[in-house]
Prior knowledge:
This protein starts with a strand and ends with a helix. By secondary structure, the protein is an alpha/beta fold. It contains six helices and twelve strands.
Amino acid sequence: xxxxxxxxxxxxxxxxxxxxxxxxxxxxxxxxxxxxxxxxxxxxxxxxxxxxxxxxxxxxxxxxxxxxxxxxxxxxxxxxxxxxxxxxxxxxxxxxxxxxxxxxxxxxxxxxxxxxxxxxxxxxxxxxxxxxxxxxxxxxxxxxxxxxxxxxxxxxxxxxxxxxxxxxxxxxxxxxxxxxxxxxxxxxxxxxxxxxxxxxxxxxxxxxxxxxxxxxxxxxxxxxxxxxxxxxxxxxxxxxxxxxxxxxxxxxxxxxxxxxxxxxxxxxxxxxxxxxxxxxxxxxxxxxxxxxxxxxxxxxxxxxxxxxxxxxxxxxxxxxxxxxxxxxxxxxxx
Length: 334
């Protein structure tokens, strides 16, 4: 049994069936075990920060398909380039980091589906030689194959013609971009897309035939994307990018290259899930990235990094939560 605390509520996940699954390499999405979040079970994606609970009213009119980022980060590659699907430690890490702190953003607008998948190790993004490159490509292909299978299972068994939000971060966005192209772009399912929140990795403006960047807070069927860095810093690799990436300002929801003061930030959720950090970050589009002055929160003196990748979503938690609800409301009006 794994016992963890989220949102002040003890979660008990019975893992007695791991013994019969630990030899299984391929996820079976008819089994709820292979979903990190699913509306038919209690999971950390159901959590609501304590200050928001009094106004929390869950809706089930929309489905959210959330693809989590890399949690298999051990650079020693103990399982090779692909994570095992039934590793208790890794799945617990996934559940109580990204599922709790990121997928929960979307739990008010609708039902959250987040598949477990045989994710690629973080080092797959940084191959050192041709052999590593081949292994990395194979790892990403395997990971996407799981995501695709999970999404097809969702469509066949749970969709029931509902509007869909695609949400993803980091490696999740690697696979989310591909999923959007294969299932939505210029396909009938595009008519069911509320919006795609593809955060943490670049999405080129001309990536898709039909689906375009969101230009304002009310647009539907479009893409929201950004990568967050400290004001004044853009990594050299990004400066070398030859394409224009979609960059959305999560405080104004447009592409205007103006500074949005931190006073527009309704609150982030950082290390303490039950505490809202108001006015934590500003936002300004700068080239292919989003800039903010150093985030403002208790203890930020120790926060010295200029790369805010891990907090792409959490710095703007409340604004994202309200925005996706607004887009869903407009979807139904139209």
